[in-house]
Amino acid sequence: MSQVTARLRGRYDRNLWFAIFVGPFVLGLLVFVYIPIVWSVVLSFFDAHNTVTPTKFVGLGNYLDMLRDAAFRSSLITFVVFAAFIVPTTFVLSLGLALLVNRARFAKTFFRSVFFLPTASSYVVAALIWKLSIFNGVRFGLANTVLGWFAIEPVAWLSVTQPPWYWLVIVSARMWLQAGFYMILFLAGLQRISPSLYEAAAIDGATGWRVLRYITLPQLRATSTAVLLLLLINAFQAFDEFYNLLSSAGGYPPYARPPLVYLYYAALGQGQDFGHGSAGAVILTLLIAIVALAQGRIVGLGRRDD
Amino acid sequence: MGSGFSRRRLLGVGGGLAAMAVAGCGSNTGRDTGSGGSSSGSKPALAQWYHQYGEAGTQQAVQRYAKEYPDATVTVQWSPGDYDKKTAAALLTDNGPDVFEYGNGPSIDMIKGGQVVDLSDLLDDTTKADFTPSLMARMTYQDKLYAIPQVTDMQLLVYRKSLLEQAGVQPPQTVDELLAAAKKLTTDKVKGLFVGNDGGVGILGGPALWSAGLDYLTEDNQFGFDDPAAVESLRKLRELFTSKTLLLGAPTDWSDPSAFTQGLTAMQFTGLWTFPAIQKALPDDFGVLPWPKLNASTGKPSVPVGAYGSTVSAKSKNVDAAKKFVKWLWVDQADKQLDFAQSYGFHIPARKSLAEKADKLKSGPAADAVKFVNENGHAQTPILWSPKSGTAYSDALNRIIKSGSDPATEIKAVKAVVEAELKRITG
């Protein structure tokens, strides 16, 4: 018997120590991540209004309801359009910033810090500043003051849908918050490119765009792949600035409503409809998985030669 | 070996902490478990939850009431943040409150899910008749009462008397007059009317129906506004939104008096709770109106009325003790109810006999407000109006008001959702 125990503990108690070090985290992962995920999948097959221990099995009913729900479908479209726009835009902006800062002849550290600082700001706080001071609808809001110099009528940025000015507010807030962080990633990538490549190119007579096209961009491939993936995940998780910019006591408007916001209202608000909420979450997860796989195929993430 | 020993100790402590974090999260209900108190020995322990009231002193007041209750040890938990979600989530567990308040009483799904208990036997018929009728109806389902209203809140239209006089405008009695008044009152500095930064989507859904003589649901719980008058009424809200007389994108929303007191708008649809601030900023320069009727021949003026209702959780280990406490505080202790309604914020007591005693409500705009509650008051939404129906209607209002969708089509879409929900709930 003691031999079995000894065997289980391993040489120098290695197995025991492994369990002690890893155990608590596995337990936490299990309790806070895996059980909720499995539970949520289970709930998605039940009629679960105001309960997490439902008894009424409805099969795929919740899934069909969600797919038939025009509001949920439009939220999925919103979020695809948003991702398709924000990912390339932030990518180009942060790459541009990185190239500029990298070329700066003086105060490089200063510019680097200035552009990076917004990353340290909370999404909620930034959203409130955007909503209350920069893009408020009255004549003394920052944006409207600027318009006033050109004798243009004040615009109620977040209240009108024709034209959809709210996108300007959402996108500018997100760019301001995120561009600096990705700029730092690109800067790190740029600093890893060997100067001898540029020297060789200069001897060959390559300048400007051609250097960027044939040396800088290919050398940044690994960084670009990582940035793209991070940007995409961030776009999927769109919630904070949308919720804080557009929600009011009367609820959330039907436009610019990402799926997480919609599900938040359905499952966690007064709705407490966990069955439909979970079904929506599973659909969303599948969608994200498909997009991530497709992206991995296209840009070759995790390929061995990278 | 000394270092090995201390490392092991450290791990032991670390592992213990991790296990505690996993096992013990969220076990604090605010309920005194009774293990520590020797004096509370045989008395049952109750946890009572409130949302965070903005007015100073409210928390101390409810703690004082709880302490004065002789038959149980009541611990008050005061919840800042998203109280509705927190409470709804806690009710799913065994660590929820025994007694809690909920906006307009528990939701229909809480009642159907058996999460709250029937409180009908706490009130006799005369006491029942003393409470604001629209609120009692809102908290009753299938002849059973599920909450006792604590204080009445209401929304109404406030206007600057001096600005109306300057512009030569009479207080509007119909929606058309309101539109005309808003137009006359608008200058390059001041807008005519403020109904929230969303153009009224959040707060005018009810008044728009009532002012057209309709309601969310009919008396027999069928969809209530598939009607040309509703189309007309919602079209007026769109007209208002595009008239350039509406204040939009103000730094504060309709529930805050700042836009009105700082002179950004001449009229504002807001809550009774703003009266102390308005009175302080614009002493005697404001009057009040209900939301006007649609036109001379159709509808009635209306005001939305709401109340936090005190409710007992079915998961409470002391349901009877909890019910007794609710009866003691919100039915028997009239002086405490009056104190709660009058001393901290500006509310109307939920009972007529107490509203008559409230000194602050005897004159001026406040007296008018009390009159509106009794004559024109409608519960914000009916009990069978589920959150899903609410989302469908507010989406429709958004499209009608902001994007100019056809109200008739939008109403049809809401009707489909609402009918499915009614079937789910009552079927």
CATH topology of the largest domain in chain B: D-Maltodextrin-Binding Protein, domain 2
Helicity range of the residues of chain B? 40-55%
The CATH homologous superfamily of the largest domain in chain A: MetI-like
Rg over alpha carbons of chain A? 25 Å
Overall pLDDT score of chain B? 87
> What fold name stands as the CATH topology of the largest domain in chain A?
MetI-like fold
Strand content of chain A: under 5%
| The CATH architecture of the largest domain in chain B | 3-Layer(aba) Sandwich
Instruction: Summarize the amount of helix of chain A as a percent range.
Output: over 70%
CATH class of the largest domain in chain B: Alpha Beta
Assign the CATH architecture of the largest domain in chain A: Orthogonal Bundle
Q: Can you tell me the overall shape of chain B?
A: globular
Count of helices of chain A? Answer: 14
Number of strands of chain B: 12
What fraction of the residues of chain B are assigned to beta strands by DSSP?
15-25%
Supply the helix-strand structural class of chain A: mainly alpha
Pick out the low-confidence regions of chain B: 1-5, 10-27, 34-40
Structural class of the secondary elements of chain B? alpha/beta
Low-confidence stretches of chain A: none
Biggest sheet features of chain B: 10 strands, mixed
Family (chain B): Belongs to the bacterial solute-binding protein 1 family.
GO biological process, one term (chain B): maltodextrin transmembrane transport
Protein name (chain B): Multiple sugar transport system substrate-binding protein
GO molecular function, one term (chain B): maltose binding
